[in-house]
Design brief:
This protein has two domains: about 70 residues, no CATH class; about 200 residues, no CATH class. With about 290 residues, it is α+β, with helices and mostly antiparallel strands. The chain is built from eight helices and 17 strands. Strand 10 and strand 11 form a beta hairpin. The chain is globular, with a radius of gyration of 18 Å.
């Protein structure tokens, strides 16, 4: 491969990113970033946003509700301006809960699925819930990767009710593509929340698993009073009583990460879902069979 090949250059950048973000004390780096990103000093904010733009040339704030931010964190968790996303209203369609790059997806092989080619993991290790494992055995999954520059809030893929969230504490490995090809069972190691959505049809099942990562470890769900992060010391099984309409905001990551979506065999994956494609909030993801 030529020395100046874009593919080789990207691989070198990814390798450097892996070394920088996974060979440091991940917990302390994440806690520091959580503190630093919330500083509202104008000079720090301006400098931080300039550095972010320098190393992430795809940062696009044109669809943000506001253009001035109090801090780096304020920019991370920005809201969309009204009308920035079109939510497909067809009740037979489950829409994407977030802006993301589509990663591994397809049929679950008994209880085995993949984070990357040649890197399997199991429903048992990820969900830690036997009833959900049985529900999604031979079902479907779609991995949605939120880049750090993307809109970080996520929305209801359908009208639904949530009665419980299972928070699973864990590590904060980077979840970028190069890490997925080097760290086995990565999603099962990281901090995550299992959110089972109760749909109108009791035969239809969807579960969302937001997975945190380095510099991100913080998942805020609007149905719960506490942020789920490295400082959280409460119960793992959190009861709630929340109803969402399709497209309603459910919560946000503190930075960017991954959402894995599980569906039972009453669904099929939309034909437009392809590995590496960009998908936006509200676009078709799954359809009833």
């Amino acid at each position: 491969m030529p020395e100046n090949s874009p593919v080789k250059h990207l691989t070198q950048l990814e390798q450097l990113n892996f070394l920088l973000t996974n060979r440091i004390p991940r917990r302390y780096a994440t806690l520091f970033m959580g503190w630093f990103s919330k500083l509202e000093n104008p000079l720090i904010r301006k400098f931080s946003l300039a550095i972010w733009r320098r190393f992430a040339d795809d940062l696009d704030l044109s669809d943000a509700r506001k253009s001035d931010f109090n801090s780096l964190h304020d920019c991370f968790i920005r809201q969309l301006r009204p009308g920035a996303r079109n939510i497909v209203q067809d009740t037979n369609v489950m829409v994407s809960p977030c802006d993301a790059i589509i990663g591994a997806y397809g049929k679950i092989e008994d209880t085995t699925l993949y984070q990357a080619k040649g890197f399997p993991y199991s429903l048992e290790d990820l969900l830690i819930d036997n009833s959900l494992v049985e529900r999604y055995r031979n079902g479907l999954y779609i991995t949605l990767r939120l880049k750090s520059t993307m809109y970080h809030r996520f929305h209801a893929p359908s009208d639904c009710h949530i009665s419980e969230v299972n928070y699973i504490s864990g590590d904060t490995w980077n979840v970028n593509p190069i890490a997925l090809k080097q760290v086995e069972r990565l999603y099962c190691k990281n901090e995550r929340a299992v959110i089972d959505l109760q749909l109108a049809n009791p035969e239809h099942h969807i579960t969302l698993v937001p997975v945190a990562a380095i510099l991100v470890a913080g998942i805020k769900l609007h149905c719960l009073p506490d942020v789920l992060d490295l400082r959280y010391k409460g119960s793992n099984h959190l009861l709630c009583n929340a109803d969402f309409k399709k497209g309603d905001e459910m919560g946000y990551f503190q930075h960017g990460s991954t959402i894995i979506i599980f569906a039972n065999r009453q669904f099929r994956i939309n034909n437009q879902v392809q590995n590496g494609n960009l998908i936006r909030v509200g676009q078709p993801l799954l359809q009833h069979r």
